[in-house]
Design goal:
homotrimer, 8-stranded mixed sheet, 11 helices, 8 strands, about 15% strand, globular
Chain lengths: ~270, ~270, ~270
């Protein structure tokens, strides 16, 4: 059932070509645009407070990524988030680095109060900080925390009334009632920048063409992990992380329902 | 004659190494820098209002790209544009997303009033919005409009006293008197971000080493379309849009007068 | 002795995984993040003045890059630099484009007054401008100046009480007493954007795991020049600067003490 729903999304996304508005960081913004295109969406990245609401009104989904926030982009994020809620399109929130500094954590909690977020995607430490947990962080990197990722995802989904996607060695997606684990992936996904951010773009692209946001979250997350695994397998001797990045985008762009069904491993 | 003029530009650009100043978006800024280098120019990307005029004074051409404008970058664009006009170097304007939001359209029209633009490069919808046309837009993507691209290019060139370059399935370049159509290209040029922006960088690089701006516009546009076609032909099984991006830059960097003359198709 | 010190750094960096905070330009910010990861560090790129000091407190080294400074990022740089000095972590300064405009030169000199900089990495023109020299510049590109690079490096190190790294056809590193020259490299390192910026990230990554900053500076500089040479040698017919960029990152990510020792050429 879930498998069939997700398989259908691969067909719908190519036809629907959802417009995905991003307010994101300037480190991986190009990667996010290309990941959106690779899966069949159209990216827009306007950030001026004077036009974000107008741009959201043209969009099918919104990504908010905290990677390099400052006061000005945060204001744009609030306007965009409220416009998305008003229009009824899904908001995907990527709390990059939350937990690392008080500024980030406070803004994230403020954002969740003011905007209804459909899907949150982060690593365990970031998501843990969102629900009030304290963990030792190292910048934007994850460290281990004291509750299982399954519990964390479920608790986050329930407490924040959202769908929680936690990326890691295995990925966990929970809507508070159902919790799904994905066993795909490769450690090299952590050796390049942007794979988390691109995952949020993939999730939002799927979310832009369906009301079944739980399936969209699973689709986006599993596409990244499966593509990351396939790209690694395609590397030949003498190829490092530069080539890995290129082949990762290749694999996202070639992903379809058949490749996905044959490759995805639910745990 | 035109062919010979353009062939000569390939030699002149390697010798002249024009400095091309950009005030552009932060999605494709890296692509624009590398495209400029690939064709033989040198990119500069300063945006601080305190130094843009000084930087323009060192440059041979200026690119203004509206991809992620806000009030602060717009002010820098005006200063840079006026400095370019004063110095007498060509200004290439890429009206990304114009027509999608009132903010963008108003700023674009304001910019055209205050700065003499030598060459405008956009897709049909964006250019249509510049001359007062109304079209349904989807973010920064083009949709079909009601006049032919040939008419649109010619009318834009005449009305705005500029050279108009309209990218699309076939490309149209007009100076208001002559109109040229290019048949090269590949649909995959629309499957990665930045190909339009990079085209403006290529055009500006050529415009920085000649007074024949019509030839420069044709040269820059046709290099991108031909490179896009050649990159696609070089893809092998299992390669997707990640590899396509890499090979596109490869092809731009290897383009010379001979490859160009053998490959370009005027319609 | 120096060789052995540097060989050891390759092992220490993989274990130590230094967190390298950057306040850098938005042209090559993604390249810097990936170069940091490729060598074994973890990049962070926060720029909001409200959190830079907190982020620096988590970091092992700080990179300040002037590529696209404006008043707001400059303020963040000062705060980050002071926090780094207070914490006692190394500051690597990349004076991109200094000498090209008064704005850049004044800010650079102001920065050096207010922040203790451990290592400066630039091309000869930029570094020359830092010590009060006047050279004809072309935007962010180097032109020849009137003193030898060896003298310039030594003088800069002494005058500014720092380690000076001058990139070029051969690279020169001086701590004011010892001066080292590296003969590796390839002209193609100048045909793509970001190789200088990435060098600063490599240097800072090494500097984040040792007190021997002179060795760290030599290690970072030589890794880039050797990787650039190896990447060029790996190109096959039909590959241009797009593929070169990818293979450059590949080579950085595969660099270890053995490859380095066999390949590095001190002059």
């Amino acid at each position: 059932m879930l498998i069939d729903n997700i398989k259908e999304l691969f067909l719908k996304i190519k036809k629907g070509n959802p417009l995905v508005h991003h307010i994101t960081n300037n480190v991986t913004i190009n990667d996010c645009a290309n990941a959106t295109l690779a899966i069949g969406g159209s990216p827009v990245m306007a950030t001026s407070i004077e036009e974000v609401a107008d741009m959201v009104n043209l969009a099918n989904a919104l990504v908010i990524n905290f990677g390099t926030i400052d006061d000005s982009t945060y204001e744009a994020m609030l306007r965009a988030g409220k416009a998305a809620n008003k229009k009824g399109i899904p908001v995907v929130f990527d709390p990059v680095g939350v937990g690392a500094t008080p500024f980030r954590t406070e803004r994230a909690i403020d954002f969740l109060k003011k905007v209804d977020v459909s899907i949150i995607r982060g690593n365990a430490t970031e998501v843990f900080a969102l629900i009030g947990g304290k963990a030792a962080t190292r910048g934007v990197d994850a460290v281990e925390i004291t509750i299982s990722k399954e519990e964390l995802a479920k608790k986050t989904a329930q407490q924040l009334n959202t769908i929680a996607v936690i990326s890691g060695k295995h990925d966990v997606i929970s809507n508070g009632e159902e919790t799904v684990k994905i066993g795909n992936g490769d450690i090299w996904l952590t050796r390049i920048t942007g794979t988390g951010c691109m995952t949020a773009s993939l999730i939002a692209s799927f979310a832009g063409i369906t009301d079944d946001l739980f399936s969209a979250a699973i689709a986006g997350m599993s596409v990244m992990s499966l593509a990351g695994e396939r790209a690694k397998n395609r590397l030949i001797d003498g190829e490092g992380i530069g080539t890995y990045r290129v082949k990762l985008i290749d694999e996202i762009s070639m992903m379809d329902s058949q490749i996905w069904e044959e490759g995805v491993r639910f745990l």
